[in-house]
Amino acid sequence: MVVVSVATAPILPPWNIDDNSILKYGLLISGYTAASLSRTGMNTKKDRFRSQFGIDPAAVVACLKDLEVEGMAPGPLLKEFFMALNWLRQYPTSRKLGLDWNLYEDIAASKAQRWMKAIAHLRDAKVVFEGFDENETWLLSVDGVHFKIHEVRTDPSTKWYSHKSHGPGLGYEFGLTIRRDVLVWFQGSLQDESNYASEHDLTKFRGGSVKDGKDKWRFDSLYNALPPGKKAIGDSGYVGEEDKITVLRDAHSPELKQFITRAKSRQEAYHTRLKSFKILAERFRHDIHLHETCVAAVVVLVQYDMVSRPLMTIR
């Protein structure tokens, strides 16, 4: 990424925050000239924008408006906000980030993380377990995702081991509504030890193991959040809780098989959206206690982006 130096070519934040002004501003600070943009089609410009910042301009606008409501609008610091988006999308080293944005590396990293945390702050407002059709049996699809980390030398243990990446990792649980492009469930934290990669998806779903007993399962688990008679859709890793989660079976009708298969494919498509941000696709280089906040920031950004770039429909 080649960012225009503020010292040689000042680019002021737009007065009016709308899709077009944000698109133009993002591309200008990425090094594109106004002349080149005038010769470029809209689809190409949006592709270039997403390659630098991860989401569509419309999603950026929506996020900025919600930050304003929360009293955290960047205003004249809009460029720093874009730097945070670029850090999440490209995950450069601090030295590379500083070079790209014409800042000392420590200052660049600090500013990027500041705005990343501001975005993550919107998590509770954007990921809410509600809005279901009361006539639906299957409310959401669910799956666990592992993200790679470095060896935790201060706490060496097999609890970090991910069978998916065959190395240390952190695991999170994501629940996506069946009928709407909305994530309604996101769980995993070091504080309650719920994101160790070694924890089985079904154990995370239940909030504890069978040997612990149901009375000791976490009250805030998806198992306990699902209303009576309502279910989730999962893959074969969730066999064992038929009353709460449906997995594909040979005995299912062709229509139900197709429904379950498409729900799982859509869930995987969502995971791909998350991992289009290199901070989640690559091995995490920072303190692992910052990881959940980074995941939350990406979840919030993808939540906004699904409004203008929806996932596949199930039926």
Shape: globular
Mean pLDDT: 93
How many separate helices? 13
Our estimate of the beta-strand percent is 5-15%
Distance between the termini: 40 Å
* Rg, Å, rounded: 21 Å
Q: How many β-strands, per DSSP?
A: 6
The helix-strand sequence is HHHHHHHHEEEEHHEEHHH
Structural class: alpha/beta
Biggest sheet architecture = 6 strands, mixed
Helix content: 40-55%
Instruction: Note poorly predicted spans.
Output: 4-9
Structure description:
The chain is of the alpha/beta class. It is 43% helix and 11% strand. It has helices at residues 19-29, 34-38, 42-53, 57-69, 78-90, 94-101, 105-120, 123-126, 201-206, 222-225, 254-275, 278-281, 291-308; strands spanning 138-148, 161-162, 167-177, 183-187, 231-233, 245-246. Strands 1, 2, 3, 4, 5 and 6 form a six-stranded mixed β-sheet that branches. The two termini are 40 Å apart.
Please name the defining characteristics of this protein.
single chain; alpha/beta; 6 strands
Short description:
The protein has 315 residues and is of the alpha/beta class. The protein has helices at residues 19-29, 34-38, 42-53, 57-69, 78-90, 94-101, 105-120, 123-126, 201-206, 222-225, 254-275, 278-281, 291-308, and strands at 138-148, 161-162, 167-177, 183-187, 231-233, 245-246. 43% of the residues lie in helices and 11% in strands.
